[in-house]
Automatic annotation (TrEMBL):
Name of protein: Barstar family protein
Domain of life: Bacteria
Barstar (barnase inhibitor) domain segment(s): 30-121
InterPro entries with a match to the protein in the record: Barstar (IPR000468), Barstar-like_sf (IPR035905)
């Protein structure tokens, strides 16, 4: 069965089932950004800071995010970013999501030019049966 990590990263892809186990098998470092509580650019940057385990020196702007994702000294050569609850975020905040996507895709392309791989994996939260 073909896995997402068998191929070069291309755009925002659907996360595989059990992404943490699969990433470990491919020796891909996996970080998780949760979008459930994101409602503006500030909360988005805080989610990124937490998810990517950045320090408080992170600039919390688009340029800083791009720099973090393309910094070949500071990040693993094979990095997966799991975007949790991403579709809901995109529906709630289309303009903010479009900006984020542009920065992440630019970073993915430019990391690739430097011989690094950056997978962007959208994972949907399981719907809670109690909320039906």
């Amino acid at each position: 069965m073909m896995q997402v990590f068998d191929q070069a990263p291309e755009g925002i892809q659907k996360a595989p089932h059990e992404p943490r186990m699969i990433a470990a098998g491919y020796q891909v470092a996996l970080r998780e950004i949760g979008f459930s509580d994101v409602h503006d650019k500030d909360s988005l940057m805080m989610a990124v800071l937490r998810g990517l385990a950045l320090t408080d020196s992170f600039g919390r702007n688009w340029d800083a995010l791009y720099d973090v994702l393309t910094d070949t000294q500071a990040r693993p050569a094979k990095l997966g970013v799991l975007l949790c609850d991403f579709d809901h975020f995109c529906k709630r905040h289309p303009r903010l999501a479009a900006e984020l996507e542009r920065v992440m895709l630019d970073a993915q392309r430019d990391a690739g030019k430097q011989g690094h791989q950056l997978w962007l994996l959208a994972e949907e939260l399981e719907s809670d049966p109690k909320s039906w």
